Amino acid sequence: MRIMDTIDHFNLRSFDLNLMIAFDAMMQELSVTKSAEKLRIGQSAMSHNLSTLRMLLQDDLFVRVGQKMQPTAKARALAGPVRAALTQAQSALQATDSFDPDTADRIFRIGITGEMEMVLLPALVHHLQSTAPGVRLVSRSITVETVDLMLNAGEIDLAIGCKESRQIGEVLFESSVACCFNPDICKLTLPLSRETYLGARHAVLSQTGNVEGCVGDALRAIGIDLDVVLAAPDFMPLLAAARNAPIVATVPRRIAVQYAPLFGLVFCEMPIPLNFPPVTMNWPIWADKDVGLVWLRNQIRSVIGDISTDLPAIAAQ
Q1: Average pLDDT over residues 65-82
Q2: Mean pLDDT score of the chain, rounded to an integer?
């Protein structure tokens, strides 16, 4: 159960939270006069706060022992939790005012698809090491079915990928795909022709259990059936399979450029033009003005821009 679900808002509404501040000041000073000075209120107002606290908590809280005021057992028990609550409240209020990447110590949770996990995250981590060394990232996989649920529940701060979302968002770049194969196994001529591509056996991405995957679905929409022998939810198995078997792996262009050579594969543009959903970045309305998340989104845009600038045109590799 989340903490917010355990808060009794109705009862707290009748409790003046300023009394917690008065209590904490009294615990620190053990003097009505000094506590009043610390809070910049009159001594009578401070005495009234203490009287109200004693009535609400049904305890003396502070008693005079000789020339000094001493906290009761109940006051001592309350001191730690009250100080922690006030510290948290102060941190929360300050967090909305500023974000200094040089000194920030914060964890950001990013929901992400397989392509962007392999292309964006390495570049983003490299970028953040020099611009915000105290920032840490947690990557979470997202699907069409889970992305909005995870954003609404606060499990992730933002989502990146080819996913439909009802949250605030923007397009990062348009999607395109490339064909990868092992030239030592597949005796094919680059660039692939339409007939050669359709005559081959294929490995495609699928996160739904559908063997045809998103590429096969897009081709079927224009009346073309693809001979798919492997559908996997991630790109690494597709490239590994193409390295070892006479098949063509169809993967996003950025994946092909960066990772196909590592598997000994050549690649080229897909010979059949297809329209795929663009890669988007989405976030919930409550995170729109969070200065830390505003900063992170700007870093992601910058890194995506650098990746796109460095991306060469695909020729026959």
Answers
A1: 89
A2: 85
